[in-house]
Amino acid sequence: MQNKIKKIRTAIIGAGKMGQIHAKVYHQYPNCSLVGIVDSDAGKAKKLARKFHCQSSRDYKELLGKTDAVTIATPTETHLQISRFFIENQIPVLIEKPLSSTVEEAEKVVGLAKKHNTLVAVGHSERCNPVVRAIKRLNIKPKFIQADRISPYPFRSTDIGVVLDVMIHDIDIVLSLAESRIKNIEAVGVNVIADTEDICNARIFFENGCIANITASRIALKTERKVRVFSPQAYLSVDYFKKTGTVIKADSNINVIEKLRELKKAGRFDLLKANWKDLLHIEKLDVDDKEPLRVEQEAFLNAVADAKTNPEVGAEEGLAAMQCAQKILDSLDEHKWD
């Protein structure tokens, strides 16, 4: 008779929107047991705990000895304080993005993780979006990336601006695609409702020649999450929200391009009668339907169970995203609107 697999005891700190989503995924995952919900608002903690049949508390320190891993989904300004307690007690943590409020705090989290040899993952769930994983499978080398992430005002995460709240997703994705050190950043933005920026556009120049242009807004009239990637190997246009994408590969269209050049040179190519889309070989991006947050949490729990595996986004990658975000914020300060 086989031994029963020991389930990983998990807990959620923060019973807000993201905490509720994390709790739902943990509750459904067969290899873990959700043992607790913690929130400074006892009523919110009890309500969520009742839904998932676990204990509730107002004090995260009460989880010591009762959990093997925790997810921190509290306001960004509390991430360092809460994560420090668990890291120092060598309990793995998944911290919702961004890693912290400042680069200095993010560096402290990374330092604590190294000092105590404890796993720290960061909740950049968009890295687990099916279209992002599909792009990574193509193994392309981007030369230009255009990312747009806009939405109506969310009335949450008002403790941070749009760069750390929204743009941080695309910052992390762009860094993972470019795979190069940052050379320079130029950014402009404006605050409309909050005391921090609500709209931002940033142009990131990488040392390998890649350029990324990222726009984020949380006061738009519609929701749009799109990215376009230009590379010598292919052109991609993907929609994170709809989980769809289009690929035009260079090697699949080389004959078309050479034929057009020949026709144009011979004077037998009528531009007015040509339909560019009909001439090209266009493919749909091969996208699966896995839920990003589930992929993220599975990777985290696998890393908790096996030290040889890695989470989707580790602490140092979360720090890199924070460092890039800070450079964008510094550039905003240099280009303030009158």
Q: Radius of gyration in whole Å, from Cα?
A: 23 Å
CATH class of the largest domain: Alpha Beta
**How would you sum up the global shape?**
globular
CATH fold field value of the largest domain = Dihydrodipicolinate Reductase, domain 2
The low-confidence runs, each spanning 5 or more residues with pLDDT under 50, are none
Kindly give the count of domains: 2
CATH superfamily of the largest domain: Dihydrodipicolinate Reductase, domain 2
Strand content: 15-25%
Q: Could you tell me the number of beta strands?
A: 14
Mean pLDDT: 89
Please give a structural write-up.
- This protein has ten helices and 14 strands.
- By secondary structure, the chain is of the alpha/beta class.
- It folds into two domains: 139 residues, 3-Layer(aba) Sandwich (Rossmann fold), CATH 3.40.50.720; 176 residues, 2-Layer Sandwich (Dihydrodipicolinate Reductase, domain 2), CATH 3.30.360.
